[in-house]
Amino acid sequence: MSAPAICTRDVTRDFQAGQQTITVLHGIDLDIKAGEMTFLVGESGSGKTTLISIMCGILWPTLGEVKVFGTDIYDLPDDELVEFRLQNIGFIFQQYNLIPAIDAASNAAVPLIAQGMDRAEAREKAVAMFEKLNIADQADKLPSQLSGGQQQRVAIARALVHEPRLVVCDEPTAALDAASGRRVMDLLREVAVAEDRACIIVTHDNRIFDMADRILVLEDGKVIHDGKTMPETH
Amino acid sequence: MIWIAIRMLTGDPQKFFGLVFGIAFSTLLITQQLTIFVNLLNLGAAGVYNNGNGEVFVMDPASVTTDVTYPMPSTALDAVRSVEGVDWAVPQLRSAAAVRTAQGDLEQVVIVGVDDATLTGMPKRLVEGDKSDLRTPDTVMVDDVGATRMFPGLDPMGQVLELNDQRVVIGGITDTVPGFASTAVFYTTYSRALRYIPGTRNRMSLVIAQPVAGITPSQLVDKIEAETGLKGRTREEFTRDGIDFIIANTGIPFNFGITVALGFVVGVAIVGLTFSLFIRDNIKQFGALKAIGVTNRQIRKMVAAQAGLVGFIGYGFGVLATVGTMWAFSSNPFFKGFFVPWQVPLISLAAVIVILALTALLALRTVFNTEPAAVFR
Amino acid sequence: MAIDIRNLSFSRQILPAIAVVGLVLAAIFILTGQPDREVDEPDTSPPSVPGSLANEARVAGSGVVEPSSELVQVGSALSGLVTGLYVQPGDRVSEGQTLFTVDDRQARAQLREAEAAIGEARAAIAEAQSAQATASSQLALYRNVSDPAAVSRSEVIRAEGEARAAGERLQLARARLSAAQARASSARTEVGRLTITAPIAGEILAVNIRKGEYVSTMGGGGSQPFIEMGQTQPMHVRIDIDEQQAPRLALGKPATVSPRGAAEQQVEAAFVRAEPLVVPKRSLTNSAAERVDVRVLQVIYELPASAVGENGTFRVGQQVDAFIPAKKGQ
Prior knowledge:
The complex is a heterotrimer of chains A (234), B (377) and C (330). Chain A is an alpha/beta fold. Chain A has helices at 48-55, 78-88, 104-108, 110-115, 119-132, 148-160, 178-192; strands spanning 6-17, 20-32, 37-42, 63-68, 71-72, 89-92, 166-170, 198-203, 214-219, 222-227. In chain A, helix 6 (148-160) packs parallel to helix 7 (178-192). Chain A is globular, with a radius of gyration of 18 Å. Helices cover 32% and strands 24% of the residues of chain C. In chain C, the strands form 3 sheets. In chain C, strands 1-10-14-12-11-15 form a 6-stranded antiparallel barrel.
C-alpha cells in the first residue's frame, strides 16, 4: 500500500472563549488511506468538525502538521492552499450550499469554473457527472425546483466533478430516512471511492456504520476508537 | 465566476431592483440638483453670455457684474482705445428703466445700449428680426423670455411701448439666456438708450474691447488696468464675477449643497443596506465557494462585478431620468438656456463609484471575515 | 451565451440594454445641449487700431470733419425778403460770386429819389448861375456910369445886393447837388449790400433759405445760418483728445482716421495744428442731455484729397474715430 492520503501528526487545536482557552483537539495522529471510505464519528462537541476542517485545509491547527497526499498544506502560502483545495478536495456540505440563482448543472460545474475552465465545457462535464448520478434530466433546473435528494446529488456532483483526490462529506444522511440514507451511501461508494481517492464521511448516523471501511470515533478531542466496525459499547 | 456573481445578484430581483433604484435615485438627485444649481449660478453671468462680441470688459472699479455697474464718463472709451494692444473698443450702456405697455402697465426692464455704428455687443442670435433692424428709428429688441412674460399670448413684434415719454417699437426678439433678475431686456443703440434712460452725467456702463492678435485677453486686462485705472475683466473672469455675485448674495449654494449631500447619503444608505443584506443572504454560498477553493481575489472580482452591474444600470437610468426631466422642463421659459454641463454626469458617476466602493468594501469585509470552516457548522 | 428569446432575462439583458441606450441618449442630449459660448466677430467692425499702431503707444480720439476754412456761416447785413437765390448745395463758388439777393426795391426807390434830387440841384445851379450873370452885368452897368446923378446911389446898392444874392443861391444849389449825390451813393451802397456774395472761394454746404423767405439780421428761423460754405479742398478733421491723454500726444505725427460705421476705411491724415485753447468736450454721442466736465484738446488734421470730394468717404460734419501715435516712452 502506498503512502497514506492524509497524515496528521500531533494536531492540536485551541479556541479562545473569552479568557479561557478550550482545547478541542489533543494531538491527533492519524493516517487515512486512499481507496477507503473512512467514517469520522463522534458526538457534538467531540471535535470531529474541527478535525475534518483541519484535514481539508480550511482551519489552521494550533499545533502539528497535516500532510495531504504528501503536501504539508499548512506550510503553503494562503493562495496556494486555496488552490490546493480547489484542485484536490471535493466538499459535500450538510446543507449542500447550492447557489440558488444558477441551474443544477452550473452549480455542479462551479469548481471547474473556479479553476478557470470555459463555462460551457465545465457544464458538459457536470452533465456527464449527472448521468452517473441519474439526475441528467434535472440539469437545467434551479436548486429550488429540486427535491432534497436531488439537491444532494447535485452537491455530490459538485464535489466530484473536478475529480479530487480527497472527498469530504458532512452528515450525508442526516436529513434522510434509513432507506434513502443507504441509497446515498451506496451511491457515494460507487462514485466517490476510487483507488487513489480518499473519502472521509463525518456522521453520527448509526444506521450506516456498517457501510464503513474504517470508523474513527472521536471523543473530547481524542481518537478513542479506530477499526472496521463500531465498538460494542458505543 | 463573474457570471455566477451576476446570476447571484439578479437571482434576487427585489434586492437587485432596490440596489438599481438606490443608485438611480442618487444619480438623479445628484445630477439633476447639480445641473439646476450650475444653471442657476450661470444666470448671474447671463449678461456676459448674451454679449456676442469682445474678450475684455472694462468698467469702473466699483462695478461688480453686468447688472451692478457704476457708470463711467464717455471719455473712458477713448482712454481704453488708447491702450496698446486694443484692437477695438465699443461702449455699452446697461441700466434699468420703467417701460409703459400699451395697456398702461408699468414694467421694469433692463435697457442695453450697444454701439450705434457697429452694433457690437448684441446677442449672437435673434429669434426674429435682423440686427440691422436696430437702425430703424425707435426700434428695440426684446429677449425671448422677457417677450413671453411681457406679451403673454401676443406677438411681440411691432408692439408699441413707452420709455421715458418716448415711443419704442419691438423690432426683434433675441435668442438669449434669461438673467437672474428675470426682467425683460431691451437691446437698442447706445445713443437711443441715452434718450430712454433719464440720466445723470456719466452713462457708460461698460467698454467692450478686443485684444489684437498675439495678445491674450488677460494681458490686455493688465495693460488696461495699469494705464487707465479702470477695472478690466476677461470674459471668463467676468462670467466668474457674475456667478460669484450670486453665490455671495443668495442661499442657492447652501440649499443645493444640502440636496446633493442628501442624494449622496440616500444613495449610501439604500445601496449600502441593500447590498449588505444581499451579501448576508448569500454568505453561506460565499463560504462554500471559499471552502471549495475560490480565492479572495476572485471573490473581490465577483463583488466588483455585482457592484459594477448595479452601478452601470442604476447610473444609466439616473442619467436618463435627469435628461428626461430637463427635456420635459425645457419648454418652460424659466428653464430657457438650461443645459446639463458635461462635467455634472461625471461628478455623479464619481459619486456612484464612491457609494458602490464604500458598500462593496463593507460587503467584502463580511465575506472575507467568514471562516470557510463555518460551512461545516 | 447566445441570447435565446425564451431565456431573455429582464435583469441581465433588457435592463443593461436600456441603460446603454439611456446613456447614449443622455450623452447625445448633453453634448448637443452644451451652450454656444463662442465669441463672434462683430458684423461691422468697430474702429480698430491700424496695424502699425496696434502694439505701439497711441492716443485715441474722436472728432468731426470740417472744411479747411472751417465752416463759414454766411449772413445778411440787411433784413428783407429773398428775391433771388443763385447757388445750391454742392456748388463751387469763387470769391465775390453772388449767393442770394434780398428785396432791394426800397433801396432802389431811394436811389431814384436821390438821382432826381441831383437833377433838381443841377437845374437850380443853372438857374442860380443865370440869375447871378444877370445881376453881375446890371451892377457893372451901374458902375460904369460916371455921372453920379445919372444913377442913384440906392440903385447901385440894390444891384450889388442882387449880385451877391445870386452868388449865394448858386452856392446853395451846388451844396444841394452834392447832398443829392451823396444820397444817391448811399442808396447804391444799400442796393449792393442787398446782394450777398461769397466771402471766400469754396463749396456751398448748406442753403437754409428759399426765395420769398424773410431774412433778418437777427438770423434765420431756428438760428440757422442762411448759407453754410467752406473750403473743402483740402478737408480737415478736428479731433478731440481727452485732456488726460493730451500730454502723451505726439504732435506733428499723422493720424489714422476712419468714419463712424466704416472702420475699415482708414486713411492717414496729416497734422495741421493744435488749437491753442483747450475747450469743454463737445457732445459727440448725439445726446442733448450729455454733459461731461472733461475738457479736450482739439487737434486739426488734413484729410488726403483722395478721401474727400464726390466719391470720398468723408463729408463735412461726419464723426470720425482717430488713432494718433503717442510720444515715445509714454
